[in-house]
Amino acid sequence: MEAATAEALLKITNDCKVWSQDLLVLHNGKRINISSAAQGKDSTTPSDAPDQPEYFPSKTKYQFDTKFKGLQSREDIIKMMKHPDTHPGSSLIVRGQKEATNSQRKCTLIFVCNQHRGISVDEECFEDGKLAKSNIKQPTMKKVKTAGTINKGVAAFAKKKDRKHIAHLGDSVGKQPMGTNTSVRRTTSNKTEDPCGMRVIVFLSVVDDFYYLATSSNMTHMNHFELPNRCIPQNSSHLEHDDISIMNNMFNANIPASVISRVLAEKKGRDDTHFDPKTLRNMQAKTQNLIDESLGYTADMNDADKTLMKLKE
């Protein structure tokens, strides 16, 4: 590949990693785009935003639906902001919740992109042509003698002759010289090297007890691509109450989780929405555990014990 072609491809890739977020919230039952109210000094009130006040508090140009009022509505507005339809192409998480931040704000909620955390990679830890870090402390193995064995071993499921060999290697592993830089960590991290600066700031005003979008919010994503909805993991916060009831009823009918995943996606009316079957099974297991606890069943009971307990009632 020619250098000019490689440079052009790299430029296109970097340009795709910078994009603006649309913020779509529900207001009076209608979904509107309020990203224009989060542009710093250039922020403006969305043209299709209904029931906006004549005068706004400081540093805001949009008031959320008046059904969100007071601290008791904090969890409801968090659920709405974290919904995938509110921020297409990305995933938001709650970075912080602060109460009484100043004389004008009773509560402040900070939502950030899930790519907001970054780490610096020390290039000195890597050698040319190697993907693993250098100067890492050598691992040591502890030999343990278990019941029914003659020789100390380190692998519980290994054959006896293999355990003898592994235990013999363990004598020399701990004596290997360590590198000069023992602070280099072997573990890896899922943090990105270059963080994303996108964030949404929502605050509760002390004047009227309503929620507002701060103009200091940043709608620009950096250092990562815009993701289609099918690539964004779905969880319980993305399901409504009737969706969870349908899911539990289908599990009780022994319908496979893969089928339930497709049913929920079709119910949402979107082909690009996907619920991981394993996530659905974990949600159903948690629900069933809560039901069992309410009925007095303990974790050490089997189906026969539960049946006997139910017949005694």
Describe this entry's structure for a reader.
With 313 residues, the protein is an alpha+beta fold. It has 3 domains: 8-117 and 193-224, no CATH class; 120-188, no CATH class; 236-312. It contains 7 helices and 9 strands, in the order H-E-E-E-E-H-E-E-H-E-E-E-H-H-H-H. It has helices at 3-16, 74-82, 160-173, 241-252, 257-268, 277-294, 303-312, and strands at 19-20, 24-27, 30-33, 60-63, 92-102, 105-113, 199-205, 211-214, 220-221. A hairpin with a 5-residue loop joins strand 7 (199-205) and strand 8. Helix 5 (257-268) packs across helix 6.
Short précis:
The protein has seven helices and nine strands. The strands form three sheets. The protein has a five-stranded antiparallel β-sheet with strand order 4-8-7-6-5, covered by helices on one side. Strands 1-9 form a two-stranded antiparallel ribbon. A two-stranded antiparallel sheet has the order 2-3. The protein is extended, with a radius of gyration of 27 Å.
Topology (elements, then pairings):
Elements: H1 3-16, E1 19-20, E2 24-27, E3 30-33, E4 60-63, H2 74-82, E5 92-102, E6 105-113, H3 160-173, E7 199-205, E8 211-214, E9 220-221, H4 241-252, H5 257-268, H6 277-294, H7 303-312
Helix pairs in contact: 5-6
